[in-house]
Write a structure and sequence with these properties.
heterodimer, A: alpha/beta, six-stranded mixed sheet, three-stranded antiparallel sheet, 10 helices, globular, B: mainly alpha, ABC transporter involved in vitamin B12 uptake, BtuC, 11 helices, 82% helix, 0% strand
Chain lengths: 235, 256
């Protein structure tokens, strides 16, 4: 694994009187794929924001160098963009990139160049999500933050997007920090996993070693039937 | 063509065109409604200008700046929706204005005074609206990205505070001149109608911007010309021409 990129020590994030994250420490090396796992409300999105410096926090977040960062927040979806009369080409023009870079990245996510003239709001859900991935990657970020990038994409589409991210990761040596609920994806594509839960149960390590049924029960509470189909994938 | 009409047409076209261009950003941010309370807050300034006999835009400007600061503070300090703040600010502005301004002298405050625009005012409005156009043109993509998703804009290294400030400053300048064109009650329409009409028929951002500005300029030229020939007040006619254009675009709307 690469050099130490990010160190988080004793991180605490809260809003008003509610503490969302408390006493969290971990580190990320260059080239790692870190999955942040946990139930709704455990502070996954907040953690990404704290690492990006978008929300106030206590404790230390130390970047050992200043990488180019790409960020795809959970709330950035087709609804956010539908309000704007943006073609796909317009959407890319919001970033300072040339046409060749755009075409390369559309090809990378398996989109035809004809979509450039389409309205972004008129793409299908799966096409739109792929376009967003291309949009994040087009500036050649060294570190990407994806917050549930396959929300609203069907199972096949989600697998495709992650296979694609995986190949970009292999080719370009990306560091990826992402939030997902899909344990199949965690096992197939992550080098590390960090679990958060509402009761502060925190685990950190290599997915195959730490994601035991007991740990999952600890993170999500007693009801782990929801994950039953995922265990089948990993046998 | 008289010289007065010439200055009215030129300054009206510049202000309406740039207001519409700026409106394409405001509409996408659901902030077109902000231009309303700014226009209303300008009314006390307009009242002072009428009473003491100086330029309406000059009187409006300090009050619009005050309005920008207030809206900026309200937005940060409260979680109230902008529409609720609008109602509060609207009433305050209008009430304060009519406390001082005799009702029979209120016409210029209510419907604008573009037909009597002075040569100096015209030069000032052309210069400053051109400046606003440049500011908005240069920062358009960045403001648009902030509108779409502020956190993403921040991680892209965009100075969100700086661009929000430039954006509000642009709105303040355009509203101050807009008050002279269509009056304090209708400035929001100057910003919102051409942009809304353009969005009905645009397929891309480029079309959206060009058509909005064009609709703004056409509304001003037609409105002022009709006013000149018919002696109807110019401000309401400019707005109604815009509204007519909007109705036509509804028929051809591509967003159904």
């Amino acid at each position: 694994m690469g050099k130490l990129l990010l160190e988080v020590k004793n991180l605490k994030v809260g809003f008003d009187d509610m503490v969302v994250i408390d006493g969290l420490s971990f580190s990320v090396r260059e080239g790692e794929v870190l999955t942040i796992l946990g139930p709704n409300g455990a502070g996954k999105s907040v953690l990404l924001k704290a690492l990006l410096g978008l929300v106030p926090h206590e404790g230390e977040v130390v970047w050992h160098r200043k990488p180019r960062i790409g960020y795809l927040p959970q709330g950035m979806n087709q609804l956010t963009v539908k309000d704007f009369p943006l073609s796909v080409a317009d959407f890319f023009s919001l970033k300072n990139v040339n046409r060749d870079q755009v075409l390369d990245h559309l090809a990378l996510v398996g989109l035809d160049r004809n979509v450039l003239a389409s309205k972004a709001g008129h793409l299908s859900g799966g096409e739109f999500q792929r376009m967003l991935i291309a949009w994040v990657l087009v500036t050649n970020p060294e570190v990407v933050f994806f917050d549930e990038p396959i929300t609203g994409v069907d199972v096949g589409g989600g697998q495709t997007i992650y296979s694609l991210l995986h190949s970009v990761w292999e080719k370009q040596g990306l560091t990826i920090l992402h939030v997902t609920h899909d344990l199949g994806i965690v096992h197939a594509h992550s080098t590390h996993v960090l679990c958060l839960s509402k009761i502060g149960h925190i685990c950190y390590g290599v997915p195959s070693e730490i994601l035991t049924p007991e740990v999952l029960r600890g993170i999500y509470g007693t009801d782990i039937k929801f994950y039953g189909h995922q265990e089948g994938l990993n046998r | 063509m008289t010289q007065q009409l010439f200055w009215s047409l030129i300054s009206g076209s510049f202000v309406a065109g740039v207001a519409a261009y700026l409106g394409t950003l405001m509409l996408s941010r659901k902030m077109a409604v902000v231009a309303g309370p700014l226009g209303h807050l300008a009314l006390p300034g307009v009242a002072i200008a009428i009473i003491y006999g100086f330029s309406i835009s000059l009187g409006a400007f300090p009050f619009v700046i005050l309005g920008v600061v207030l809206i900026w503070l309200f937005e940060m300090r409260t979680k109230l929706p902008m529409e609720a703040l609008t109602a509060i600010v609207f009433a305050t502005g209008v009430a304060t204005a009519f406390l001082f301004l005799p009702v029979d002298e209120a016409e210029a405050a209510l419907v604008g005074n573009i037909m009597n625009v002075s040569y100096k005012e015209a030069i000032a409005s052309i210069t400053l609206s051109s400046m606003v156009f440049l500011i908005v043109k240069i920062s358009y993509n960045r403001i648009m990205l902030i509108n779409i998703y502020e956190d993403v804009a921040k991680t892209e290294g965009i100075d969100v505070k700086l661009y929000n400030f430039l954006y509000l400053l642009s709105i303040a300048i355009i509203v101050a001149f807009g008050v002279n064109l269509v009056g304090g009650l209708m400035t929001a329409a100057l910003v919102a109608i051409p942009a809304a009409a353009s969005r009905n028929v645009s397929r891309s951002l480029g079309q959206y911007r060009v058509l909005a500005s064009l609709f703004g300029v056409v509304s001003a030229i037609l409105g002022i010309t009709v006013s000149f020939c018919s002696k109807l007040p110019a401000g309401p006619v400019v707005i109604l021409v815009g509204a007519t254009i909007f109705l036509v675009t509804v028929i051809f709307s591509k967003n159904s």
